[in-house]
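Do me a favour: review this protein, sequence plus structure tokens, and tell me how the chain folds. Record follows.
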Amino acid sequence: MKKTMLILLALLLALGCIPAHADDTEAYRPPAGYDQKAENVDYGTLEHQSYYSETCGKYRDCMVYLPAGYTPEKAYPVLYLLHGIGGNHLEWAGGKPEVIVGNLVAAGEAKEMIIVTPNIKAYPAGTTSSGNMYSPEAFAAFDHFINDLQVDLMPFIREKYSILEGRENTAVAGLSMGGREALYIGLTLQDTFGYVGAFAPAPGVLPYFAEKGLFEEDAFKKDEQYETFILIVAGTTDTVVGEWPKTYSDTLNKNGTAHVFYETQGGHNFFVWKNGLYHFARNIFGMKAE
């Protein structure tokens, strides 16, 4: 039954059969040029890294965006930025995170930060992909990334770069399936992540159809002992994830968890995802733009 439901979900997502919420919100439109390079801004450097994953039993790739003037003499907060179901560690290159965040930093609207874009398809050691990204095994591999992140990737970043530790200096966000995993990771590891961003997050965090979700509805909330910033964005014409971003927001509201939810013009694409990153970056690591 579970396999059948996942296949049905995949078909609905692929065919765009899940309706979207149609309520445009102009208040969250970024300024013109927010994702374009400016002549007087230094956008830092990009590094490709490979780390050995005990969780997956092999070397895995990630991209690391270092802020302008990065030096090991200074420590920086870290944002883990996650890709979608068909992507990998390179997908966020299309979203220009170094440009969006670099412009914000130059304007004094965001903190300098290290951005890590990993491959979040984390097949456990001894298993391989069937090649079907909508298979139950593929969904399980995405959900398994939480283990690779804790056991392998975060220690690697900690050893390789000069970072600020603690939940107040650690954020996770993602687009689509990466948004689903950001919600899962951020609300599971609340002692580790102080900021959670979900840009048009995919279904599966909560029960759907007749399937069990990553959380039961009443468990989908912040722990009262932690202050966690959560941002969820939806595209008004998104026919891929449809109502799920709003469903996540409604459930957080039902459970008494304060968060930011907004809708912006656009479908299931970087027009919306970049918008989400812009507003998320303005509100993390001590910034309070919204």
Residues 25 and 264 are 5 Å apart (CA to CA). The two ends are 43 Å apart (CA to CA). The longest strand covers residues 45-53.
